[in-house]
Amino acid sequence: MRDLPASLEYRRDGEIAIVHLARVAKRNALDDETVRGIETLFRHLPDDVRAVVLSARGEHFSAGLDLSSLTATTALDSLRRSQMWYRAFDLIQYGNVPVIVALHGAVIGGGLELASAAHIRVADATTYYALPEAQRGIFVGGGGSVRISRIIGPHRMMDLMLTGRIYSADEGQQLGLSQYLVDTGAAEARAIELARKVATVPPLSTYGILHAVPRNAEADPATGYVLENLMAAMAAGDPVAQDRIAAFLAGRAAKVK
Ligand code: 1HE
Fold first, then answer.
1. pLDDT of residue 73
2. Span 189-202, pLDDT tens digits
3. N or C: which terminus of the chain carries fewer CB neighbours within 10 A?
4. Each residue of 39-96: pLDDT tens digit?
5. Does 67 contact ligand 1 (Cβ within 6 A)?
6. Is 95 helix (H, G, I), strand (E, B) or coil?
7. Which domain holds residue 132?
8. For the chain, percent of residues with pLDDT exceeding 70
């Protein structure tokens, strides 16, 4: 893909795109160039990409915001920067392609905000999570107070921010920060394995999962039923669904065992 910074690596493996944060010397701290690159990448994902794996080079997934971007910054600079992060991470969360993130080492601050925008998080045993923003005298600015608080609950997020507490990989798994916890060094391989499976879900079902599920979790139930109803009707009427259901009824599709 064109116009990506050196801090982002992109490659294709069939229907899957594999992206690496690659700013190892700075522990994958997210500078403006990298976040702009994430925005470019997800805005211009080729139509035939059916799943994305987001992983990272080096010992740590990400040390969060590159703190050097905050020296001599104004409130307006920070406001604009956050808007860029929102655009980039919204493209991840509300695109048409499931994103599976592979975590290891530090998943800190903006790194956790980035991971929270993905649909599936796979952590290895070295992973740890922290939100040290307030210890540095700043605040989350990559959508964390919206996304992370919905995953772990606002009170846990307040504790992380107020006390500088660190969650281990095990704690993160119990709290839903990861959906999969694997051995040290195994997160990326598991994420790729999952991406291959995810890539087989037809586009209409994927659309419902990525767009209707998170919105219905926040909608009033009556509105949620209408959205679900429309989504279910659209998916069921799709020829792909008709073929797959016929295949099961004819004994030609896998059982759920
Ligand atoms: C950085 C950053 C960074 C490393 N911004 N330069 N995030 C934090 O408060 C976390 C800060 N980082 C750390 O606590 C540690 O670096 C790590 C635990 C992640 C890794 O430790 P270590 O010993 O492997 O590496 P290091 O020696 O600390 O760092 C290597 C280099 O990366 C060093 O630069 P060098 O030029 O001296 O080699 C570090 O300065 C640099 N580095 N992390 C800038 N974050 C949208 S709002 C979100 C707000 C936030 O994310 S706040 C959380 C910020």
1. 84
2. 999 999 999 999 99
3. C
4. 999 999 999 999 999 999 999 999 999 999 988 889 999 999 999 999 999 999 999 9
5. yes
6. coil
7. 8-198
8. 100
- Asked whether the beta carbons of 102 and 169 are under 8 A apart, the reply is no
* CA 177–ligand 1 middle distance (angstroms): 21
**Ligand 1, atom 3, residue with closest C-alpha:** 66
**Which of 155, 177, 198 is the last residue in one of the domains?**
198
Does ligand 1 come within 6 angstroms of the Cβ of 35?
no
Express each pLDDT in 148-166 by its tens digit. 999 999 999 999 999 999 9
Q: Is ligand 1 within 6 A of the CB of residue 85?
A: yes
Could you tell me the distance, in angstroms and rounded to a whole number, from the CA of residue 23 to the centre of ligand 1?
11
Contacts of 141 (CB under 8 A, 6+ apart): 65, 78, 81, 82, 85, 110
Which of 198, 221, 239 is the endpoint of a domain? 198
Ligand 1 pocket residue status of 112, Cβ below 6 Å:
no
CB 87 within 8 A of CB 39: yes
